[in-house]
Amino acid sequence: MSNDQFTSAGAHEQSAQSSRLHSTDAWLWAFVVVALVLDVVLTYYGLAAGLEEGNPLARALFSMYGVVESMLMMKGIVIAVALVAYVSVPEKYQPVVPLGIALPWFVAGIINASLILQL
User: Fold this and answer.
1) For the whole model, what pTM was predicted?
2) How far apart, in Å, are the Cα atoms of 26 and each of 46, 71, 76, 95, 107?
3) Beta carbons within 10 angstroms of residue 56's beta carbon
4) Domain boundaries, the chain
5) What local confidence, expressed as pLDDT, does residue 23 receive?
6) Which of 10-14, 28-32, 82-86, 101-105 has the lowest mean pLDDT?
7) Do 117 and 48 form a contact (C-beta atoms < 8 A)?
8) Mind spelling out the 3-state secondary structure of the chain?
9) 100 has pLDDT over 90
10) In terms of C-beta density within 10 A (0-12 exposed, 13-18 middle, 19 or more buried), how is residue 51 classed?
11) What pLDDT, on the 0 to 100 scale, is given for residue 3?
12) How many CB atoms lie within 10 A of CB 86?
């Protein structure tokens, strides 16, 4: 096998691995969107049902701009920072970025759901 064949095989393997990473990343970013919607909707519903927001900054923003508007603004800032981080880190670490924001939002949504069910 020539040196060119090794290089070609290595490039093909790297391309296939990169394609798998990008496919996984797409699913992780979709998870971010689902977690965001879950958190926003359940927070809005919970507050309308009489629950109180525990985050003082969020409470202040809610009173100034409204619940949905404030949450979308805060989450938009987080996503903007995450996108900068995503393109800044090495490719093999990129999946950690959407996972790092989706998991806390998903957990917040689950907590909101459990509090709503206790009403």
Assistant:
1) 0.79
2) 30, 23, 18, 9, 20
3) 8
4) 25-117
5) 83
6) 10-14
7) no
8) CCHHHHHHHHHHHHHHHHHHHHHHHHHHHHHHHHHHHHHHHHHHHHHHCCCCCCCHHHHHHHHHHCHHHHHHHHHHHHHHHHHHHHHHCCHHHCCHHHHHHHHHHHHHHHHHHHHHHCC
9) yes
10) middle
11) 55
12) 19
Per-residue pLDDT at 17 exceeds 90 = no
Cα–Cα distance for residue pair 44/97, rounded to 1 Å: 26
Dist. CA 55–CA 88, nearest whole Å: 30
Check residue 50 and give left, alpha or beta (phi > 0: left; psi -120 to 50: alpha): left
Q: How many angstroms separate the CA atoms of 81 and 2, rounded?
A: 45
Q: How far is CA 35 from CA 3, 50, 57, 107, 108, in A?
A: 47, 22, 20, 8, 9
Mean pLDDT to the nearest integer, 4-33: 70
The tokens describing 62, both together, are: 């809610």
Q: At 77, list the tokens.
A: 């800032």
